[in-house]
Amino acid sequence: MAGFVLIHGSWHGGWCFDPVAEILRERGHTVVAPTLPGMGGTAEEIAAVTLAGWGEFAAQHCRELKRELSGAPVVLAGHSRGGLVVSTAAEADPGAMDALVYVCAMMLPSGMSRAQFKELEGPNPAFDGIISKLHGGLATVVDAANAGPVFAQVSPPDLVAAVLPRLLAEPHAPRSQVLQLTPERWGSLPRTYVECTLDRTIPLDSQRKMQDYSPGAKVVTLEADHSPYLSKPVELADALEGALPR
Q: 3-state SS string over 97-114?
């Protein structure tokens, strides 16, 4: 059996992975789905957040899980903005994990930030319209009342209704921090990209642009919205298991 460290995306917490985590645990795996430091915090806590700090946080969870499992393989997966954290952790300590999974996530090349990639994408007024600034721009928040059609339009309504009120303030700084990745470290790990064809937050053309920018990932296609852990949890669990080194 294996270990999985699951890193959530913007405005979410580790709890968003509950359905897929339960499936993986029923299959005998160990799953850790932490909430990143600073999420929903005070202005001071949010101001202290860096992408490097988040990367080290994820890498530490991978190291601890690998020790707990006596060296069994550990997969580090990130959803959406969580892809930035996955890449940063893998560059910092590639020995801490055995494979990477990007779930409709930011799989950006070295030298690019999330903010820079946003400039390369087409307009997305539905997504941009639900976001507003907080703490003088240190953070952003989402209009939960109108987020369902953008984040989870084909997910079970009861699950969506339970998740949206839990959305948190998102530290803004990691979006502008440029990734520094090398073939010898980040590039040494096998990667899987789980693309979601119905995604209205990071549309499919954006997902495929990232695949072109960072070639070499195995691609799994799900007919899912931006919340495949809600809309396609079994298929997502299959994709995560499929990322394990053979």
A: CCEEEEECCCCCCCCCCH
